């Protein structure tokens, strides 16, 4: 369809059209959506697309709720590819219950932060979480260009190019606290045997 384009006949979002597709095609296993779609369309996908295994989204949605509807409503979802959509960290966190069942999640040009991706890596240690930037892009702590998250029996790859950062689990640092105890003889001298101060 193209970037956020409305229905060419009505000029309105195409929510009802995609809603009709998922309502009437209950055996649908693959779906690609793009164009002017609001969270309502994703609500329909989550409600009726119970057999969807592969979903591609481009230039669609208007808040984190759209992705939340899909991740909470499509239990069979295996492959999810999203680009140029307004989904951020809250949307990403909404799928924590489901990611181990998926083969991969690819999000590009969305509103994800490095911190949000790191939270997922911490919460899902058996998944590989990669942050990918373009060759000429500097590494920053702000928005992430591309997130690629997948299952692997062998763990993270060892041949990742320089523009790929594999997020690792950050183990909490142990703090050593030195406690100095008073000598028993000092306590006895100050307080006496019966607890009365001397």
TrEMBL record:
<protein>
    <recommendedName>
        <fullName>Transport inhibitor response 1 domain-containing protein</fullName>
    </recommendedName>
</protein>
<dbReference type="InterPro" id="IPR032675">
    <property type="entry name" value="LRR_dom_sf"/>
</dbReference>
């Amino acid at each position: 369809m193209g970037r956020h384009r409305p229905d060419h006949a009505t000029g309105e979002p195409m929510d009802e059209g995609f809603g009709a597709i998922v309502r009437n095609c209950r055996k649908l296993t693959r779906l690609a959506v793009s164009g002017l779609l609001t969270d309502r369309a994703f609500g329909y996908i989550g409600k009726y697309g119970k057999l969807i295994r592969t979903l591609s989204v481009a230039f669609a949605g208007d808040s984190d709720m759209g992705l939340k509807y899909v991740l909470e409503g499509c239990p069979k979802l295996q492959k999810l590819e999203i680009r140029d959509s307004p989904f951020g960290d809250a949307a990403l966190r909404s799928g924590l219950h489901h990611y181990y069942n998926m083969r991969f999640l690819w999000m590009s040009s969305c509103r994800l932060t490095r911190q949000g991706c790191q939270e997922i890596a911490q919460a899902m240690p058996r998944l590989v979480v990669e942050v990918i930037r373009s060759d000429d892009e500097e590494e920053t702590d702000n928005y992430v260009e591309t997130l690629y998250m997948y299952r692997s029996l062998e763990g993270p790859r060892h041949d990742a190019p320089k523009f790929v950062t594999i997020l690792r689990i950050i183990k909490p640092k142990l703090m050593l606290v030195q406690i100095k105890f008073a000598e028993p003889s000092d306590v006895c001298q100050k307080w006496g045997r019966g607890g009365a101060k001397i």
